[in-house]
Structure formats: C-alpha cells, structure tokens
C-alpha cells in the first residue's frame, strides 16, 4: 500500500494522488466540485506567507484551501517527476 499523508504535509511542487476525503454533506460536495476525488492528482504550487491558505493545482485549475481543510484530505505522494500534472 502507498504511504498516505494529509495534503497539508505535501511539499510545494510535489504531486500526489488523492486517496480519501474526510468530509460529509455540503463540504464533501464542495470538494468534489473543485475536482478533489479519489484518484485525482494534486500539487501544491504556492503558499501564503503565513502558510494558510495554500494554492493547489488540480484538474487543470488552481484552487486555494485552508490548512484545516487540507488536513482532512489523504493523499499518496507520487515519485518526483517535474513538469506539469
């Protein structure tokens, strides 16, 4: 099984595959609408000076998530490959 970490632990410019979302109801629907589904590839691209929020590239879009939300998303880091996702 792949090593799983929370999305908030993923370093800038390192890609990962979404494994699980710990959200229910409207929060879960919001994450799904943003493209966060099991199997989606996501990459943190920019962090604010305070570290909250962080911008992520997913499904060809850039989204911003607060750390309290990114901690609830489990991901499996992908091997370093560089380039676009």
UniProtKB/TrEMBL annotation:
GO terms for molecular function: transition metal ion binding. Keywords: Iron. Coiled coil: none annotated. Residues 5-77 form the Ferrous iron transporter FeoA-like domain. The keyword Iron applies. This is Ferrous iron transport protein A.
